[in-house]
């Protein structure tokens, strides 16, 4: 599989990699001296990491052209959901930090960092979904592959109907 090196160097690629790193750190904060309310931290961190890492790999290996999915919209929706869940986790971890749990203070810091990164990712996802520029040299609407692709051939890609002379000049319309 060819690796899309331009995506790694793009803003979107750096944001996705940063989100994955921050979610791993929040996962570690959730696992230390785990109590009942940190299970939600754990689940949001784990599922958020899996979803964002999945998007990162799909963009990195240019799988966006091979799978039939509206990639910018799916990425945007995933980021919006993670913004909401990150805000909830930030509020709960702030409450836990007020009860003198130091790992919750660290988790609150990393959840606010994750929240900011998800907001930036939402912005870029919305721009890509609505047809705006998603980065340098992006000429495809499938996703942020950042590889210039040739323009589609003009005209239909299927052969036209043959003219039938036995029907008095009647032509099929495409």
UniProtKB/TrEMBL annotation:
PROSITE patterns: MARVEL. Coiled coil: none annotated. This is Marvel. The keyword Flavoprotein does not apply. Residues 164-174 have a biased composition (Polar residues). It comes from Echinococcus multilocularis (Fox tapeworm). Keywords: Membrane, Transmembrane, Transmembrane helix. One of its GO terms (cellular component) is membrane. Residues 144-174 are annotated as: Disordered. It comes from the Eukaryota. Residues 7-130 form the MARVEL domain. The keyword Transmembrane applies. It is a multi-pass membrane protein. The chain crosses the membrane at residues 6-32, 39-64, 76-96, 108-126. It is found in: Membrane. InterPro entries: Marvel, MARVEL-CKLF_proteins.
